[in-house]
Specification:
The protein is an alpha+beta fold. It has 2 domains: about 170 residues, BirA Bifunctional Protein, domain 2 (2-Layer Sandwich), CATH 3.30.930.10; about 40 residues, SH3 type barrels, CATH 2.30.30.100. About 25% of the residues lie in helices and about 30% in strands. It is built from 5 helices and 11 strands; from the N terminus they run αββαββββαααβββββ. Strands 1-2-6-5-4-3 form a 6-stranded antiparallel sheet. Strands 10-9-8-7-11 form a 5-stranded antiparallel sheet, with no helix packed on it. Strand 5 and strand 6 form a beta hairpin. The longest helix is centred in the first third of the chain and has 20 residues. The chain is globular. The chain starts with a helix and ends in a 9-residue tail after the last strand.
Length: about 220
């Protein structure tokens, strides 16, 4: 994303794509590490010169990546609010949006041809190759992800929110826990794309945080 930000600062236009064969310092949301130190994944950044709120854009890009990998690989993926594409309850792709010199940089990582992950990631990460047993052309995935990302980034906000709800099992009626701290039942999205949560202490709006499924009674820990 740093290279894309530098290009944005130099005036590169909307839709410019920067692709890395591998990354040595991939980042996720809130500064978390994105495992990308092998050549099995697709790592790209897109310069977007649009006036769109970041939460909605992140969901738009999630829809774009979902559509792309579903079509290329013939799989059915899920969307975990706000920025993860899931396959069989494990993370297949992630999206991060940052602002830079009047532009937005969309960083997208897709696990395409990895055949294995480190032990600490095996239960939470997957790849298209692991799930289907097939090797994929990263160029084909790149072309489709890029095209869908540029298309979805222009879709109106209300339509993005509607489509995200339709394509995510996490948005409504799912028992989840947020950052191992707040648990409850998801109750849809508000008008800005933030997650609504019904907890035992009443409704909550979740503006950010790591979401994962939660079994058992609703508990809030302070």
């Amino acid at each position: 994303m740093k290279d894309a930000a530098a290009l944005a600062a130099a005036g590169e236009p909307h839709g410019t794509v920067v692709v890395a064969e591998q990354q040595t310092a991939g980042i996720g949301r809130h500064g978390h590490c994105w495992r990308s130190d092998n050549t099995g994944g697709l790592y790209l950044s897109i310069i977007l010169r649009i006036d769109t709120a970041t939460p909605t854009l992140t969901m738009a890009l999630g829809l774009a990546v979902q559509r792309a990998v579903n079509d290329v690989a013939g799989v059915t993926t899920d969307l975990r609010w706000p920025n993860d594409v899931m396959l069989n309850e494990r993370k297949l792709a992630g999206i991060l949006v940052q602002s830079a010199d009047g532009a937005l940089i969309a960083g997208i990582g897709v696990n395409v041809n990895q055949q294995a992950f480190p032990e600490e990631l095996r239960g939470i990460a997957t790849s298209l190759r692991i799930e289907t047993g097939r090797e994929y052309s990263k160029d084909a995935v790149l072309d489709r992800v890029t095209a869908e990302s540029l298309r979805y980034s222009a879709v109106p906000k209300t339509e993005i929110l509607r489509r995200f709800e339709e394509n995510s099992s996490y948005v409504r009626g799912k028992s989840v826990i947020v950052d191992d701290r707040i648990s409850g039942m998801t109750a849809g999205l508000d008008g800005d794309g933030f997650l609504l949560l019904d907890t035992k202490d009443g409704p909550r709006t979740i503006f950010a945080g790591g979401i994962r499924p939660c079994n058992g009674n609703t508990i809030i820990k302070h």
